[in-house]
Amino acid sequence: MTSPLLSLRGITKSYGQVHANQAIDLDVAPRSIHAILGENGAGKSTLMKMIYGVEQPDDGTLAWEGEPLTFASPVEARRKGIGMVFQHFSLFETLTVVENIQLVVPGKKADLVERIRTLGRDFGLEVDPLAHVHVLSVGERQRVEIIRSLMTDPKLLILDEPTSVLPPQLVEKLFDTLRRLRDGGVSILFISHKLEEIRAICDRATILRGGRVTGHVDPREHDAHDLARMMIGRDMPEPMPAAPLSGGERRLEIIGLDYRPEDPFAVELSEITLSVRAGEILGIAGISGNGQSELASLISGEIVLPKDQRDRIYMMGQDVGRLDAAARRKLGFAFVPEDRLGRGAVPEMSLVLNSLLTAHSLNLVRHGLIDKDKAKAFTDDCIRQYDVRTPGAEIEAGALSGGNLQKFIVGREIMLAPKLLFVAQPTWGVDIGAASAVRRRLVELRNEGMAILVISEELEELFELCDFIQVLYRGRLSPALIARDTRSEDIGRYMIGAQLSPEKGTA
Ligand SMILES: Nc1ncnc2c1ncn2[C@@H]1O[C@H](COP(=O)(O)OP(=O)(O)OP(=O)(O)O)[C@@H](O)[C@H]1O
């Protein structure tokens, strides 16, 4: 290849006992879109953090345009021409687009507005520079993040799972932008778990497994199965077939629920009606920000209904609208929140203590004292069954990679054997091997009679899992669609607020 823009040799980084990166060699060519592929905990984020100057390697060398390089901070990385767009956006909701950009890019407001408009036109990143961020969709917010990085004139842009926040219609648009950037001379490092996307957009791929490079390939020359094998070291398991619907009792019922939040940035919910029976999976599709987190809080009991709202939310046949989260759990309800580090787990606590947060009901606490052996055994079981990659149960939750923490939380909740399980974004950030294992387990539990409610932005996932799908758009739910009779384009149209053709099957 032409001489590389960025070259890594022998990059090594450990966190205590964990060898996150071992002797990594990587060359990023100018004008290329280069995928970094690997299952959860393979070391992708660690490697990107070293390139962006957030972390320092223990060993190895970096070279930038042939010159040796040491970055002590992201500021220096940006100065050299490396930009990064993180998965979790860092914009201030109450400021406008240009005000957000002004926080990191020097310049007069009027000039910046003009540059934002020009970049928007040149790269398909249209967004109103004077709009407040809180009115922007997720896709628009991502565009703001990309524009902000582009304003420092990067030669290399790192994108961490950029498509996980986007509805299918916008993924193509992002790809178009990335191709234009590449053609304009920017190289892109693209982290993703989605193999088909990598095949569609990337011209090179480096695959990591267990902190080591297992291959440098042209992803267009390999099918998704090949790539998956390199990534996880074995073939992908087949999806679990769903048994016919059993028509079991209603375990969750929401009837005409209206919710007017006090927070002006929260989404108002109107006439929410849904029901989940034993032995079935209902999926809520939709782009996040359309009321998902408000609905999740109302179902989990994090928000309880005001006194005058009765007969709106039933669980296991009881009106639970006024019950708090703990009381709902006592009825046999379990919940995996979307926000893993805020609500799903306490990062500073060990996995054992994190088990106790919800699993204390399984006799892990006796007479107010923790039964340490039982709690440890429960945690070890969860780690084994759900393939949580960690040196042990005593490790702090915050030290796990994102996907591994998600596996741990999903496993912990499933092990409570609830009657009704509610999972928000079940495989968010989870690699394909582990994601397919989590999905198989959910279908298995459904076949055994559990009632399951899933909120997901991933349509393919919903189609693999669900019997029925409802779409949440601007605080309203579509009718329940029978998943096997519905096409993804129909769901897609509901997701952006367009109506579905009337002949499609509804439940
Ligand atoms: N600050 C830290 N302290 C301790 N261990 C860490 C820390 N950061 C990462 N690790 C460990 O390093 C390994 C690699 O993690 P990394 O986040 O790079 O993986 P990843 O490939 O990005 O995973 P994912 O797809 O789940 O985000 C994991 O075993 C993780 O637990």
TrEMBL record:
UniProt GO molecular function: ATP binding; ATP hydrolysis activity
Alphabetical list of InterPro entries matching this protein: AAA+_ATPase (IPR003593), ABC_carbohydrate_import_ATPase (IPR050107), ABC_transporter-like_ATP-bd (IPR003439), ABC_transporter-like_CS (IPR017871), P-loop_NTPase (IPR027417)
PROSITE patterns, A to Z: ABC_TRANSPORTER_1 (PS00211), ABC_TRANSPORTER_2 (PS50893)
ABC transporter domain ranges (all copies): 6-235, 252-499
Pfam family, one: ABC_tran
Keywords, ordered alphabetically: ATP-binding, Nucleotide-binding
Domain of life of the source: Bacteria
Family: Belongs to the ABC transporter superfamily.
Protein name as annotated: Putative ATP-binding component of ABC transporter
Gene source species: Rhizobium mesoamericanum STM3625
